[in-house]
Amino acid sequence: MSPESRGLFITFEGPEGAGKTTQIARLVEQLEGAGVAHILTREPGGTPLGTRIRQVVLLEPDLQVDPLPEFLLYSASRAQLVGQIIRPALARGEVVVCDRYADSSLAYQGAGRGLDAGLLAQITQAATGGLKPDLTFLLDLDPAIGLARAATRGEPDRLERADLAFHQRVRAGFLALAQQEPGRFHVLDGTQEPDDLAGQIWAVVENKLRMGQAEAHASSSG
Ligand SMILES: Nc1ncnc2c1ncn2[C@@H]1O[C@H](COP(=O)(O)OP(=O)(O)OP(=O)(O)O)[C@@H](O)[C@H]1O
Ligand SMILES: [Mg+2]
Questions:
Q1: Taking the domain 8-221, which CATH number applies?
Q2: d(CA 15, ligand 2 centre) in Å
Q3: Which end of the chain, N or C, is more open, meaning fewer C-beta atoms within 10 Å of its C-beta?
């Protein structure tokens, strides 16, 4: 559990087309079925400001956005989302499920675009006030497979149009982050069947929710 909150903050990360949005929908069904209070949000987006930023950074591929301003726009969306949506939901004791978060910036703008990791960490700290997920599911797969999946959705966005070498660096960046924080990250092979992935994800979340209840019980009775 986040030390500053009673809720549970879960993020999904991974390359394009890895199955994040698919698995998030499955997790939300499970949470609903279990009667667990939750919200679903995404980056960039999730607030009126974030939705406008999403339009600029993703959906206008012909607009020139250099790496640093790109990162700052993501960070602006993130800061608004944390303050307006995520922290209040965690304070209410809810589960927050977020489709991408700060790890995506470290992987895409750091490993992918080559911005300095120290600078990214510093600005991310400022944007989030240091709020980190309790659990992060990294759906890992060869970016060629993910991009081929995503291509079936129609017009590629800005990041989907980047070259394969970029996406390989992003994948490696995600895996390096997971190695640094093995307690937070659960790395799953994204080429598995959706049902199998959903089962593995729910097992981890259910266990974490149970641990949270046990902690709450221990603190209220002791
Ligand atoms: N485990 C899976 N096996 C095969 N295909 C899958 C699997 N999970 C999702 N897909 C398909 O791959 C495509 C991309 O899935 P999805 O949109 O969930 O990925 P994403 O990680 O959210 O992508 P993006 O990074 O672009 O948001 C969809 O067409 C989806 O139906
Ligand atoms: Mg998605």
A1: 3.40.50.300
A2: 9
A3: C
Amino acid at 121: A
Q: In this predicted model, what pLDDT tens digit does every residue of 193-203 receive, in sequence order?
A: 999 999 999 99
Rounded to whole angstroms, what are the CA distances from 28 to 2, 147, 203?
20, 25, 14
Rounded to two decimals, the pTM is 0.94
CA–centroid distance, residue 153 to ligand 1 (Å): 10
Residue-wise pLDDT for 63-92, tens only, equals 999 999 999 999 999 999 999 999 999 999
Q: How far apart are CA 183 and CA 3, in angstroms?
A: 15
6 ligand 1 Cβ < 6 A: no
For ligand 1, say whether the CB of 22 is within 6 Å of any of its atoms.
Answer: yes
Annotated binding residue 20: yes
Domain boundaries, the chain: 8-221
| CA of 222 relative to ligand 2 center, distance in Å | 43
Was 18 annotated as part of a binding site?
yes
Q: What is the dihedral of CA 73, 125, 176, 72, to 10 degrees?
A: 10
